[in-house]
Structure to design on (70 residues):
């Protein structure tokens, strides 16, 4: 999945597959996780949040199933 670099102290890059509703995040530690069944609206709000890390911690990490990729 293609990821775009983001300006964040938590994340290095973020990608999204709208067809399969998969959000892929690369942390500054270079670990990569995929989160499943994430609606496009959640992805859009996440990408426009004042703090990607805070939004992720409150609205994505505790809600969606995930897989550790790297």
């Amino acid at each position: 999945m293609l990821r775009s670099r983001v300006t964040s102290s938590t994340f290095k890059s973020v990608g999204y597959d709208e067809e399969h509703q998969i959000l892929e995040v690369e942390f500054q530690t270079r670990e990569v996780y995929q989160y499943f069944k994430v609606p496009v609206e959640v992805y859009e709000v996440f990408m426009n949040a004042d703090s990607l890390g805070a939004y992720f911690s409150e609205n994505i990490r505790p809600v969606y199933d995930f897989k550790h990729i790297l």
In short: The first helix runs from residue 40 to 47.
